[in-house]
Automatic annotation (TrEMBL):
Membrane association type: Multi-pass membrane protein
Transmembrane segments: 33-49, 61-81, 93-110, 116-135, 156-177, 183-202, 214-233, 253-273, 285-304, 310-331, 343-362, 368-392
Residue span(s) of domain Major facilitator superfamily (MFS) profile: 219-401
Record-given protein name: MFS transporter
Keywords: Membrane, Transmembrane, Transmembrane helix
Major subcellular location class: membrane
C-alpha cells in the first residue's frame, strides 16, 4: 500500500493543548451542523411539493420532469464541490451551499411556473450536492485530527436534520402558517446553523490542481458501487415499503407509512451509536455485517406477513444500513488512488445514482416478477456485496481495535 503525500493540508492552531482541543471541538461542531443543514434542507422541500404542484396545476408527468431538476442540480454540484474543496477548502463551499439553500427554499414556496421552479430546483440540488460532498470531506479531515471514528455521528446529524425538517415543516404548515412563511422559518434555521458553524470550520489548502470531472478509478469505483447499492436499498425502503405492506401484506393503508418511519428512526439510532461500534469492530466487519444484516432484514420483510415481524425486520435493516455509508466515505477519503476530494465527489455521485435510479429499477423488476421477488432480489444483491467488500482497502481497521 502506497503512502503518498496527503493531498490536503489542515492548518492547525499552534499553542497549548487546550487551544488544540478547542480547535478540534469547533471542527466537530461545524461538521455536525453542516450535515444537519443538508438533511434539514432536503426534508423541508418534501412538504412543499404538493403546494408547488397545485400552484402550477401540473400533472404527475410534468411534476416528475420538474423534480428531475433537483437531481440534475445535485449531480452538477457534487463534482464542482469536490474540485472547489480541493482548491479553496471546504469552508467556503459549505457556506455557499447553505446560502444557496436559504435563497432557494422561500422561492420554492412561491414560484408558480415550471421553468422558474425547475431553475430554482437546480440551485437547490446543486447547493445540497455541494454541502453533501464538502461536509464529508471536512468530516474526514476532522476525524483524522481526532484519530477516532466520527463519521457515523456526523451522518447521524443528517438523519436528525431530516426528521426535524420534515416534522417541523409539517407542524408549522398544520398550525395555519402559509407555505411561504413556513419556508422563511426553515431559512432562518439554516442561516442560524451556518452562522454558528462558520468559525469552527478547519481552513484547508490544496497541494494539487483538482479537475472538476474525473472518472472513478481503482478502489474508488468499488467504494462508489457499494455506496450505490446501499442507497438503492434505502431508496427502495423509502418508495416501495408502504406499497409492499398494503398490496402484498394486506396492511391497512393508515399504517403503511410506519414502514419507512421505522427504517429512518432505526438508521438514526444506528448512526448515533455507530462511531463506538466502528471503534470496537473496525471498518471491515462493520461493512460485512452491515450488508449481510441489511439483506437479511429486507428478505424477512418480503417473506413474512405478520406486521410486528415486518416492522422488526425493517428496524434490523435500518440499524444495519445506517453505518455503511459513513464507513464507505471514510475509506474513500483515505485511499490514495485519487485525491480525497475527487474520490468523495465520485462516491457521492454514484451513491446519488442509487437514490435516483434505485426506486425506478425496483419498479421495473417488480413489474415483471412481482414486488416480493423484487425485494428478495435486492436482499440477494446486499449479500453479494460482501464479496466486493473484500476488495476494498482498509487502512484504519487495526486502529479501531
Amino acid at each position: 500500500m502506497s503512502h503518498s503525500t496527503p493531498q490536503t493540508h489542515i492548518s492547525t492552531q499552534p499553542g497549548t493543548l487546550a487551544n488544540q482541543a478547542a480547535h478540534l471541538s469547533g471542527g466537530k461542531r461545524a461538521t455536525r451542523l453542516a450535515f444537519f443543514i443538508a438533511g434539514f434542507g432536503l426534508s423541508c422541500w418534501a412538504p412543499l411539493v404538493p403546494f408547488a404542484q397545485q400552484r402550477m396545476n401540473a400533472d404527475s408527468a410534468m411534476l416528475g420532469t420538474i423534480l428531475l431538476c433537483l437531481g440534475l442540480g445535485a449531480v452538477i454540484g457534487m463534482p464542482l464541490a469536490g474540485m472547489l474543496s480541493g482548491r479553496i477548502g471546504t469552508k467556503p463551499v459549505i457556506t455557499a451551499g447553505a446560502i444557496g439553500l436559504a435563497i432557494a427554499l422561500p422561492l420554492l414556496a412561491i414560484l408558480s411556473t415550471p421553468i422558474t421552479l425547475g431553475l430554482c430546483l437546480l440551485l437547490f440540488g446543486a447547493s445540497l450536492g455541494a454541502i453533501d460532498v464538502a461536509a464529508n470531506i471536512h468530516g474526514i479531515e476532522v476525524q483524522d485530527v481526532a484519530k477516532a471514528p466520527l463519521m457515523s455521528g456526523f451522518h447521524g446529524m443528517y438523519s436528525i436534520g431530516g426528521l426535524v425538517g420534515a416534522g417541523g415543516m409539517a407542524l408549522i404548515i398544520a398550525s395555519g402558517l402559509n407555505v411561504a412563511t413556513s419556508a422563511l422559518v426553515a431559512t432562518a434555521v439554516i442561516i442560524a446553523c451556518i452562522a454558528t458553524a462558520f468559525s469552527g470550520f478547519f481552513t484547508t489548502r490544496s497541494a494539487n490542481n483538482h479537475a472538476m470531472f474525473v472518472i472513478p478509478k481503482g478502489k474508488v469505483l468499488l467504494i462508489g458501487l457499494l455506496t450505490l447499492l446501499i442507497f438503492l436499498g434505502e431508496g427502495a425502503m423509502l418508495d416501495w415499503s408502504a406499497l409492499l405492506l398494503t398490496k402484498e401484506k394486506q396492511v391497512d393503508v393508515a399504517l403503511s407509512g410506519s414502514a419507512y418511519a421505522v427504517f429512518a428512526f432505526a438508521m438514526t439510532i444506528s448512526r448515533l451509536i455507530g462511531d463506538r461500534v466502528v471503534a470496537r469492530i473496525g471498518d471491515r466487519l462493520m461493512l460485512l455485517g452491515g450488508f449481510l444484516l441489511t439483506g437479511l432484514g429486507i428478505a424477512l420483510v418480503a417473506y413474512f406477513d405478520s406486521l410486528p415481524i415486518i416492522l422488526a425486520s425493517i428496524a434490523l435493516a435500518g440499524l444495519a444500513a445506517g453505518n455503511v455509508v459513513p464507513v464507505l466515505f471514510t475509506i474513500a477519503g483515505q485511499q490514495r488512488s485519487m485525491p480525497a476530494s475527487q474520490a468523495i465527489a465520485a462516491t457521492s455521485i454514484l451513491g446519488y445514482m442509487g437514490v435516483l435510479l434505485g426506486p425506478a429499477l425496483v419498479g421495473y423488476v417488480a413489474h415483471f416478477i412481482g414486488l416480493i421477488l423484487a425485494f428478495l432480489t435486492l436482499a440477494v444483491l446486499m449479500v453479494l456485496a460482501m464479496a466486493v467488500v473484500s476488495a476494498v482497502p482498509f487502512q484504519r481497521s487495526s486502529e479501531h481495535k
